[in-house]
Amino acid sequence: MTTKIIHFMVNGKLEQAEFRADCSAADVRDVFRAAAEAGPHHILKMYNSSGSVVNISPRLEANSERSYYRLEVVASDLQSVAMPPELDDMEYRLHHLESKVMEDMGKSPDIMCELKSHVESFKRKLEVGQPHEHRGSQQSVEHLSWMGLFKDDGDQQLSKFSPKPKTPQLSVQEERQQVRRKFLNMSSLQVTEEVREHLKTPIFDNWQWEEAEMLVLLQVMYMDLDFLTAFHIELEVLQNFLFEVYCHYNNIPFHNFQHCFCVTQMMYGLIWLTDLRNKLGRIDLFVMLTSALCHDLDHPGYNNVYQINAQTDLALRYNDISPLENHHCAVAFGILSKPECNILNNLTCEQYKHIRGGMIRCILATDMARHNEILNKFKLIQPVFDFTNKEHKEVLMKIMVKVSDISNEARPMAVAEPWLDCLLQEFFNQSDTEKLKGLPVTPFMDRDKVSKPSSQTSFIRFVLLPLFSELTKLFPCLEQHILEPVRRALKYYSDMERASKGEEGATKP
Predict the structure, then answer these.
(1) Rounded to whole angstroms, what are the CA distances from 162 to 128, 145, 175, 214?
(2) 400/380 Cα distance (integer angstroms)
(3) Is 159 helix (H, G, I), strand (E, B) or coil?
(4) Running DSSP on this structure, what letter comes out for residue 152?
(5) How many CB atoms lie within 10 A of CB 354?
(6) 140 CB neighbour count, 10 Å cutoff
(7) Residue 44 near residue 100, CB atoms below 8 Å
(8) CA 119 centroid distance within chain
(9) Where are the beta strands (DSSP E) in 41-145?
């Protein structure tokens, strides 16, 4: 088998890599990852001599030193260190072992979950804190740094860039309590006006924030929309509720607490951009924001198709009808049933029924199996939309939660693209498990059939654009904020897909 030599520039040095044409895509990425001194969670991009993005795969065309490729780490933590290969090997073996155990037992034992948590925790310790992966993006994020985030009336300021003391490895429970302490300590400080304004926009960069900081910003959203006064919510109860929500999101690649924060932040931004505060009652705004916050609680990382095919407890409990979304609702109201977390405690019976019914409708609407049904209903009423019509409002609220849920591509590319990598990682984990268990393999999750650009061009073209376009007809102001960015994302991934197919065609005899 012939080998090919690839010349490329990385970190200011001209390097070369040699590999066989029949090697795997993962092996090729590992070669370039090592050359760039990048960790397993960093995002690499390769450009050809004309500046076009090319796919990092065994089909890369051999070149000379004069026509070298350019390799960039576009999502790197300047403070991070490369992961030891032993840790990656341990994680792989643990995943393989878990799949085997699940195949025999039908579920993953608690000790396996604990082991996985320890591995993830150890990786985070090696990375020295949360990744700030997009400092290279063109938008200025200086004002979003911890140094400029909180102020009080005195000169008290905390620096995000101060050295972090080394701490021993903590259990999941200890880590959560540490987040809680940080959250409560920070919650008494004042968030700057600049951050408050940025929080209302779709260009907000979630990668800049730690978990405790995100909890503070969620508190800001509830306070700025005047929910505490309107519904007689005590601050301590709100804080308990937010922390419990945080604890009920799992440590999985995509459907985690950061995703929950992003969806809630987008909902918050849309409420301000569309002036819904003057179009809907405060109780409906509360329903939408809280639904966004709770919409993926305790997501296991495997979708409804998997739940039904594998006949999991959730699928059996909910008779194959939106098992995950029903579970998310149940977990949300389980949290609210705790007196110390019950932000609905001081409502009238009618208000409680309104909020509970609204949250159930909105969270169940996030099941993509119902996408066309809900979108078509909105299309019918959109030309004659009436904010005083109860049915119209309920459909709009579902649409707003749906848009927020799948809004990553409305964000700047430096923020959005890493989310796609997280999503594909979760998809591939599912298809790997489906193959191991002999279940039908979900086609758009199969790592052997799906490419990053092709998966996204289809999703943008057939799901995002029709949905976002319809909402923009009702709120024309959203065209520049969410519709145009999605169109740019489609062009970006279309160009990437063409480049990938061009390479593929060039390698064929």
Answers:
(1) 12, 12, 20, 19
(2) 16
(3) coil
(4) -
(5) 17
(6) 7
(7) no
(8) 21
(9) 43-47, 53-54, 69-75
- Residue 3 β-bridge partners: 20
Show the CA angle centred on residue 419, arms to residues 406 and 44, nearest 5°. Answer: 150
Phi, psi (degrees; rounded to nearest 5) at 90: -60, -45
Phi/psi at 6 (5° precision): -110, 125
Q: Residue 226: left (phi > 0), alpha (psi -120 to 50), or beta?
A: left
**Eight-state DSSP code of residue 462:** I
CB of 252 within 8 A of CB of 299? yes
Better pLDDT: 143 or 347: 347
Active-site annotation holds for 255: yes
The Cα 297–Cα 328 span in angstroms is 5
Element containing residue 8 per DSSP (H, E): strand 3-10
Q: How many CB atoms lie within 10 A of CB 130?
A: 16
Q: What is the pTM of this model?
A: 0.71
**Cβ count near 364 (within 10 Å):** 20
**What's the CA gap between 390 and 249, in Å, rounded?**
32
Residue 177 makes CB contacts below 8 A (sequence gap 6+) with none
The Cα 56–Cα 54 span in angstroms is 6
The contacts of residue 267 (CB under 8 Å, 6+ apart) are 288, 289, 292, 400, 401, 404
> Computed over its alpha carbons, how large is the radius of gyration of the chain?
24
Q: Could you say which of 41, 132, 134, 255 is catalytic?
A: 255
Query: The tokens 């990553």 sit on which residue?
Result: 408
- Among candidate residues 39, 26, 20, 50, the one with its CA nearest the CA of residue 77: 39
The answer to whether residues 119 and 77 touch, using CB atoms and an 8 Å cutoff, is no
pLDDT band at 81 (very low <50, low <70, confident <90, very high): very low
**Rounded distance between C-alpha atoms, residue 309 and residue 385, angstroms:** 39
Neighbours of 348 (CB within 10 A): 8
More confident residue, 251 or 83: 251
Look up residue 409 and give its DSSP letter.
G
Q: H/E element holding 198?
A: helix 193-198
Which is it for the CA torsion 406, 409, 413, 417, positive or negative? Answer: positive
Q: pLDDT (tens digit, 9 = 90+) per residue, 271-311?
A: 999 999 999 999 999 999 999 999 999 999 999 999 999 99
Transcribe 135-179 into DSSP letters: TTSSS--GGGSHHHHEE-SSS----TTSPPPP-----HHHHHHHH
CA–CA separation, 504 vs 457, rounded Å?
18
